[in-house]
Known about the structure:
Elements: E1 9-11, E2 14-20, E3 26-31, H1 34-51, H2 66-76, H3 84-97, E4 102-107, E5 113-118, H4 125-137, H5 139-149, H6 158-170, H7 175-195, H8 222-233, H9 239-250, H10 254-258, E6 265-266, E7 271-276, E8 279-284, H11 287-294, H12 309-322, H13 332-343, H14 348-355, H15 361-369, H16 372-381, H17 397-423, H18 433-436, E9 453-458, H19 464-478, H20 493-500, E10 503-504, E11 508-509, E12 514-520
Helix pairs in contact: 2-3, 3-5, 5-6, 8-12, 9-11, 9-13, 13-15, 14-15
Amino acid sequence: MAKRIPTPFKYRGKWRASVTLPGGKRRALDFDKYEEAKAWIVQMLGEIAAASGHAPKLDGPTAATLADALTYYAEQWTVNKGGARAELNRINHYLQAAGQPNLRIKVDENGKKTLTVTASTPGPSAFEAYSAERRGLRGETYRTIGKLAARRCSAISPADIRELMSTMSREGLSDSTIQKEIALLRHVFNTAAKEWSWVGFKNPCTDLKLGKSESRFVVLPSAKVQALMQAAAGCDNPLVPAAIGLALDTAMRKGSLLSLDWARINLEHRTLQVGSKTGDVVLALSQTTLAILNNLPKSSEGRVLPMSDNALDMAWEGVREKAGLPTLQFRDLRHVAATRLAKNGMNAHQLQKVLGHKTITMAQVYVNMVQTDMIEVLDKVAPLDPVLVVEPLEAGVGAEIRRRRSDRITGAIRRKAQDRAKQDPLAGAADETGQRATTGPTGDVAPLAAEPSVVSMPSSEQDPQTQQTSLARAAEEARVAPEVEDEHPSETKEQVAESAQPWVSSHAQAGNGSTVLRVDFRARKVVNG
Length: 529
């Protein structure tokens, strides 16, 4: 972490700034404003650093532009990284926008890397047209990058970085691309604060929340892999099939493949040592990889695949088109290989070694993705159980709830009436309750679920008061609380219960001398029979 900067504090109505001098003594000064006290602290610490021989690099954040900082960072950090080429491409975007020459990594015969300055020269017309088209799609992003590149580092605020993120997102760049862009700037600023003696400098990227990048996983069936190898066999360069075969079998990245050296391969012990983004890794060789290597001639320069990065890219374009996989990227072969190894039984710890990862996290992701075998096993040990089959719904959930509720309440009323008929000997016509429940005033029969239910009650010689009492008792016995949840979750249980209560009409006299009740359970309407 960067050295903590002293903070002004309140003292006797003013802001006191205090710093520790090289001899251990402290010097303090009071100011009316917090900003003045903070600026004095930064100034004093800068003077102390300069006096001790630790002058700020690039004359500090108030003098250095973002383009200057990125150039210095590339010389000190990027050149030594495994993924230097991709990071240098991002840095060159800022340098081009600021009118500075591009940077390029050069490797000598001893494998030593150096950073060189290259003038921007026009490429082939087709490439220039393609490049111009791509830049046209990201015009606002490149303009925002240009403004940041020319700005002093001390003047770059979190709002400026957020503007870049929003612009990139608006123009269709993925969260993963935005994350990598901001990660570069964040590390540059952190390095400046820690190592460049930029006293008092605050990283503008520190508190910004980045989106989650989406991992890209590709699974190719055997037929597609075979089509890919057949297309590679038709290339003019005979090294292309070997490069693709090794990528699919070893899960090595393109840069690692192209840097393979015969001096670091032990065919007898079936191991090879190769550089990667995380450092040198030692890989065990499968029978397939061993066969591919044994079939390759040993070049005088010692490289296993003596071809350039651009040559492999151009060949790959043609191979994937012929194989019918126009969107497949060369880096996807690493994912294909990892998935295949996991499916063939390699556990997460073994896969971690093959991939050269420092942690087991990503290897575990590949293992978890391989679910095909588990599905096959489940189909064998747990076939379709007829007991667990759920009948399909012909209507919507709400309509089905209403239908079942109506059937349940109608059935309950019918059972109540039948029980009363058995207990009351005067209910001579009660045995016909089931038919009366479905018969309207015209004699037509209608379904119980769609029409109000009708319950027949004997009237005989009852006086009006006794008759009314019987009606009230029958209606009370007919009330049944719902046993299913209502389709309207906003209603309370009391409201649901109330909506499910039967509504009983005033009585009417049937032809056989009994009283007919017509009950509507859904519309809350009283219908006289």
